[in-house]
User: What shape does this take?
Amino acid sequence: MIVVPQTPAVAPPSHDPGSRIQDPGRFAFIIHPLRISDFARRYPVTRKLPERLVELAFRPVPPRMVSHITGIRSPTGARAEGWFIGLPLTPRTLMDSPLEFVYRRLIQCGRLAESLGAGIVGLGAFTKIVGDRGLTVAHNLRIAVTTGNSYTAATAVDGALLAAQRMGLEPANVTAAVVGATGSIGAVCSQILSRSVGRLILVARTRETLDALQARLRSAGPSTTLGARRADVRVETHVKAAVRMAEVILTVSSATDVLIEPEDLRPGAVVCDVARPRNVSRLVYERRNDVLVIDGGVIEIPGEVDFGFDFGFPPKMTEACVAETILLALEHRYENFTLGRDITLPQVEEIAALARRHGFRLSGFRRFERAIGDDEVERIRQAARHGRFAQV
Assistant: This one.
């Protein structure tokens, strides 16, 4: 029976500092195919089959251990090992299936993680946005669960600002827009951005909640870790109007429809699309060679890391949600860190501080879960600079 949670359950963390050095922290992370072509890596015959048939064929297949992750070693001496657990369900299957079915599959993944010896399991990609975002899964496991969204929020802002600099923009002088600003991730990202940019446009559908967030940002005191700068904060209920005014855009809306089309963006703009489903039309990638659109930052993990699985990233690099799970394992903090829809600024600051302590660093960008090289960024920058606009 699946237990529906009332309040988050928290596993007690280890407080033995000696054990952190002697014993590696152990974690697991759930991955799943993001597109039908991902099945073909292991099952080439699927290339010849209709997509729906492939999805139906894998729907009853139980999760399995995909790889053993080794070699993670912090400059502090702490070590971690883990496992990728593969759930053979596509985003469409996860989003369209009854929640009872999805929860049952995710709990199966968690119990496999328990049997492997993990103290915490991370939810990847669409597994962290279905249902109640990890709460039910956590209440049905003996180990901790995290979505990784705290570190995702921190690195989304870091990635967007770094991308702006690579595009020749000085963050302190730019106008930034947060689409979906009144949501949990959006509000945290807005708080962080307000300390780094010159002007900030908060975008959401409801004016009252926008006004409340604007007032909170204007009255907030300085942060001990993020500095005391304050942006000129404005509000806007129309996405397209806000986007056309901004050089840096962060999208975290829960809307199921595409919100940003190719004609909405100004040349040289930087867009960090954290939302799932995506807020940015795929046509932007195809028609605009003068704007930089990223999913977020790529994190370099310390040590001689072997993930045992090819994500399309350079060696030792992974996404922020994976990195958060690893950080908690390095600390032997087997507790539910980021669950549900609420994310607080203290959570984000805490996980960012842990990342610095353990030598994790932002090292590039990703798009459609693939790394973007410096040469591609430079081509986009030059196209924007010289007005080579490829819209068709």
